[in-house]
């Protein structure tokens, strides 16, 4: 499980273990507009068992989780869950353990695709949740086996959390702890909406109610690229951006162009240093980290509409994105 600022997972004490077991069995009240959690979801989620080089053990870190997203035994997990492992296994909810192959990995989004010789049921995907909507996380927390915790969608479209170069997170207060990485985030209609990825911490790795799941839009984009090509193509805009200062934000939200790659896509589109980018490809840009995500979604070889402000005036242009 990725944590911030610390990524070290401490040994589990007896008190923490008792607390984890209590939390994993806590019953949540189901809102009137949400369906009861379906146990059938557990058939689509597995525990992930990485076998690291050497003695095969992964010191001080638990097992992880993976979730089926494509027919034919394809599952996604987090790249950091696999880590240095060359061999992996999955454990089904009924206790069976099967070998799995690593199809591809993308460090920039922290998403990996694996394949097992079993065609697990694929959950239907759902839209981006509304704020305050009920969501549930399914994962192998602390390596205890699959458990379900529920909360609400606290925020959507989060970037700049500091975990990955490309981020599009759903933030939730559903309890998530080490081992839950790679698990499923489902909405109140039992649809897959995200891949549990990280917990935000201060001085410990305990859950403090600020947890992140990569959006299903990001997950499926990466999963399909890895399945079809074995890698993910990341687009380049030629933009070097930074966050606006407090005084600069008084007149406009966005990301300030700090530099332009000579003869790059942005330069060819007429963008200049000191321009303020406010939208790329229909995705609002409120801070510098939004640019990488917006460019990623448009993709290599495609044209991205760009809205920006120059000397206070609103301008438009189009960038033809190249590969990195």
Count of the domains: 2
Mean pLDDT: 88
- Runs in which pLDDT lies below 50 for 5 or more consecutive residues are 5-29
Order of helices and strands: EHEEEHEEEEEEEEEHEEEHEEHEEE
Tell me the CATH topology of the largest domain: Thrombin, subunit H
Strand order, largest beta sheet: 8-9-10-13-12-11
| Gross geometry | globular
Number of strands: 21
**Radius of gyration over alpha carbons?**
21 Å
* Percent range for β-strand residues: 35-45%
- Please identify the structural class as seen in this structure: mainly beta
The second-level CATH architecture of the largest domain is Beta Barrel
CATH class of the largest domain: Mainly Beta
Written account of the structure:
- The protein folds into two domains: 2-228, Thrombin, subunit H; 235-323, Pdz3 Domain, CATH 2.30.42.10.
- 13% of the residues lie in helices and 37% in strands.
- The chain has helices at 14-24, 79-82, 216-229, 265-268, 289-298; strands at residues 2-4, 45-51, 64-70, 74-78, 87-91, 97-106, 111-116, 134-139, 147-158, 169-172, 184-187, 192-200, 211-215, 235-236, 239-243, 255-260, 276-280, 283-284, 303-310, 313-320, 322-323.
- The strands form four sheets. It has a six-stranded antiparallel beta barrel. Strands 2-3-4-7-6-5 form a six-stranded antiparallel β-barrel. Strands 15, 16, 17, 18, 19 and 20 form a six-stranded antiparallel β-sheet that branches.
- A hairpin with a 2-residue loop joins strand 17 (276-280) and strand 18.
- It starts with a strand and ends with a strand.
